[in-house]
Design a protein that fits this description.
Number of strands: 0
Structural class: mainly alpha
Helix content: over 70%
Order of helices and strands: HHH
Radius of gyration: 15 Å
Number of helices: 3
Number of domains: 1
Length: 78
């Protein structure tokens, strides 16, 4: 396996961990296990509301904005 694939896989794992952490922190703290449960359709209704309606759209926007900045930087370097 090439070095770049290993680096990409490691960065994807780190990004997923930070994503879950971003969804779990806030005024209403939700444990990371409950965050994963809510993302896969389980969890209690209060945590599901906070994660799905309040935190998830903001976290997805941040992830997409970071990806767009990364792609634009790669295009400029090329």
């Amino acid at each position: 396996m090439s070095r770049s694939l290993v680096v990409i896989a490691a960065l994807a794992v780190v990004a997923a961990g930070v994503f879950v952490l971003a969804l779990s922190l806030g005024d209403y703290a939700v444990p990371p296990g409950d965050v994963i449960s809510v993302l896969f359709g389980g969890g209690d209704r209060g945590a599901a509301f906070v994660i799905e309606k309040l935190r998830l759209p903001r976290a997805v926007d941040a992830l997409l904005a970071g990806a767009a900045l990364g792609v634009s930087g790669a295009i400029i370097r090329a």
